[in-house]
């Protein structure tokens, strides 16, 4: 079996690590489609998740993870190019389907989960919303920004980065769930951001972790948002509420740890031999 160039990173003598693009196809062998989309968005996101200690995660115990910021490992364009270059690899067909639903530049696991719960098709438990931009620059009128606390580009123009933005519809969604949104300073920052965006003509929505976990509250939120986007929430599947609830529950669980255990037991990810690796290094 041949692998496209750039499929492996050479660490040291006889030690190689698969590139993110190849890992995406490998994970397609054991993950359902919606979980593969989540994995792809993590690769294209600007955050990482890690076990609290190096020893956790190998004995079946519950894993508590930390989250931090990093550059994206790949872009959606990178993934698409690699999948197109490797149609013969087992998992490539499912990987190609997952690419349709991946969005670049998510900044946290919950941003990823929220985008998927809104944008995946009804049959996968999503609300079939159009894909937003994630953490893109939303420019403001410089005359309306007197105080600091906003970003500025190289020309001094003020802008904000928003979790999910449908710029053509002038709609913004922000996820409020981590410590940065708690406390007096966090609340004041969020209120000012919402006021600046509303003054610029944007509809502003915010969702909390508790509302994301609640079927009724999420349904209420999604219905209002879809109306603002010029769509109606009209699932064509009879058990949509169950599918959406199952999707949101799955996205909150650590399914990747369970997948890794299944891979080890079932041998679903085959290790290439040295001849296959040669000439395919990044």
Looking at this protein, list some descriptive labels.
9 strands; Endonuclease, Chain A; 2 domains; globular; five-stranded mixed β-sheet; 282 residues; single chain; two-stranded antiparallel ribbon; 11 helices; alpha+beta; 40% helix
Q: Mean pLDDT score, rounded?
A: 85
Q: How much helix is in the residues?
A: 40-55%
**Beta-sheet strand percentage?**
15-25%
Instruction: Name the poorly predicted regions.
Output: 53-60
What distance separates the N and C termini?
A: 18 Å
Helix count, per DSSP? 11
Structural class: alpha+beta
Count the beta strands.
9
Number of domains in the coordinates?
A: 2
Name the shape in a single word: globular
Main beta-sheet strand count, sense and barrel state: 5 strands, mixed
Task: Indicate the multimeric state.
Answer: single chain
What's the SSE pattern? EEHHEEHHHEEEEHEHHHHH
Question: Could you tell me the radius of gyration in angstroms?
Answer: 21 Å
Organism: Slackia equolifaciens
Protein name: DUF559 domain-containing protein
Question: What report would you give on this structure?
Answer:
With 282 residues, the protein is an alpha+beta fold. It folds into 2 domains: 1-108 and 249-275, no CATH class; 129-234, Endonuclease, Chain A, CATH 3.40.960. The protein has helices spanning 20-27, 33-44, 76-85, 92-99, 109-119, 183-199, 209-213, 215-228, 240-252, 255-266, 274-277; strands at 8-12, 15-18, 47-51, 65-69, 133-139, 151-152, 158-166, 171-176, 203-208. The strands form 3 sheets. Strands 5, 6, 7, 8 and 9 form a 5-stranded mixed β-sheet that branches. The longest helix is centred in the last third of the chain and has 17 residues, at 183-199. It starts with 7 loop residues before the first strand and ends in a 5-residue tail after the last helix. Mean pLDDT is 85; it is low at 53-60.
């Amino acid at each position: 079996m041949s692998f496209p160039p750039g499929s492996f990173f050479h660490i040291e003598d006889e030690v190689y690590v698969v590139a993110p693009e190849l890992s995406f196809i490998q994970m397609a062998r054991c993950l359902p489609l919606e979980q593969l989309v989540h994995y792809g968005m993590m690769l294209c996101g600007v955050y990482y998740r890690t076990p609290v200690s190096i020893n956790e995660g190998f004995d079946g115990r519950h894993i508590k993870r930390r989250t931090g910021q990093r550059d994206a490992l790949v872009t959606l364009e990178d993934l698409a190019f690699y999948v197109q270059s490797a149609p013969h690899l087992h998992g490539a067909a499912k990987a190609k389907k997952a690419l349709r639903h991946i969005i670049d530049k998510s900044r946290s696991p919950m941003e990823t989960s929220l985008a998927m719960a809104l944008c995946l098709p009804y049959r996968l438990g999503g609300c079939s919303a159009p894909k937003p931009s994630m953490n893109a620059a939303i420019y403001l009128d410089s005359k309306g920004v007197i105080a600091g606390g906003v970003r500025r580009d190289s020309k001094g123009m003020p802008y904000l980065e928003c979790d999910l933005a449908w710029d053509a519809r002038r709609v913004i969604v922000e996820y409020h769930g981590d410590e940065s949104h708690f406390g007096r300073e966090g609340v004041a920052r969020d209120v000012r951001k919402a006021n600046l965006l509303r003054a610029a003509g944007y509809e502003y929505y915010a969702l909390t972790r508790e509302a994301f976990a609640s079927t009724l509250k999420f349904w209420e939120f999604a219905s209002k948002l879809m109306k603002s986007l010029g769509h109606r929430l009209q699932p064509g599947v009879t058990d949509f509420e169950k599918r959406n609830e199952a999707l949101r529950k799955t996205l909150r669980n650590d399914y990747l740890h369970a997948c890794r255990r299944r891979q080890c037991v079932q041998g679903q990810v085959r290790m290439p031999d040295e001849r296959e690796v040669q000439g395919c290094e990044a």
